[in-house]
Write a structure and sequence with these properties.
The protein is mainly alpha-helical and 109 residues long. Helices cover 47% and strands 0% of the residues.
Length: 109
């Protein structure tokens, strides 16, 4: 469960990359409960057990508690996003007008 949290928190794209990160990142090792010399599990083990873990009682209780604590910050009317944490893979050339025009947005230099 802790490894999956790291994957979400640090935007790690795959279980293979996550296991690689855990292998050399001491903070990740500490967070998942591994010592400096402990062997890291195989990425296939993590992938095969992910669905089973997420449907387990432990995961359901964890997410229920997160939801309970976050209720006071939730709203049905709006949402807020911390924009500095969003990674954008778009360039200025890819922006389009909202009206559906195919013209790319022209920015003055």
């Amino acid at each position: 469960m802790r490894a999956l949290l790291l994957q979400v928190f640090y935007s790690v794209r795959s279980e293979r990359l996550l296991v690689e990160q855990i292998d050399y990142n001491l903070l990740f090792r500490w967070f998942v409960g591994l010592g400096m010399d402990d062997a890291v599990w195989n990425h296939a083990v993590l992938s095969k057990n992910r669905d089973r873990l997420l449907t387990s009682d432990v995961a359901q209780r964890f997410f229920a508690e997160v939801n309970r604590q976050a209720k006071r910050f939730m709203s049905d009317e709006h949402f807020t996003v911390h924009g500095t944490l969003i990674q954008a893979w778009a360039s200025q050339k890819s922006f389009r007008f909202k009206g559906g025009s195919d013209e790319a947005l022209q920015l003055d230099a």
